[in-house]
Amino acid sequence: MKRKYELMAIFVPELDEEAVKSEIEKIKDIIASKDGEVEKVDNWGKRTLAYEIKKRKEGTYVIFNFVLPSSEVLSFKNILKLNENILRFMIIREE
User: Fold this and answer.
1) How far is CA 60 from CA 39, 51, 70, 87, in A?
2) Which residue, 14, 15, 27, 54, is most buried by CB atoms nearer than 10 A?
3) What CATH number does the domain containing 73 carry?
4) Segment 15-60, tens digit of pLDDT
């Protein structure tokens, strides 16, 4: 069963605009490869973090709204965990 999800990813601040676009495309491709569909991507740009994460004071925030079969969410999370350019991420299910 496909459900709607929202992913907030915080990328390392060292990435320039092109690198961030490349990372966004990679995530879109992963979602597509898992029989999902990206509805919206919102790049918030660099923001100061509320607290340091991995000795960094800022990060690039990107929000993804997508549809994914619920059976694929765990493997998608595991792929995101392996990405060294992501400081922190969170996936929530939209009602």
Assistant:
1) 20, 14, 27, 9
2) 27
3) 3.30.70.60
4) 999 999 999 999 999 999 999 999 999 999 999 999 999 999 999 9
What is the span of the domain harbouring residue 13? 2-93
Tell me the whole-structure pTM to 2 decimals: 0.93
Tally of domains within the chain: 1
Q: Provide the token pair at 37.
A: 């569909």
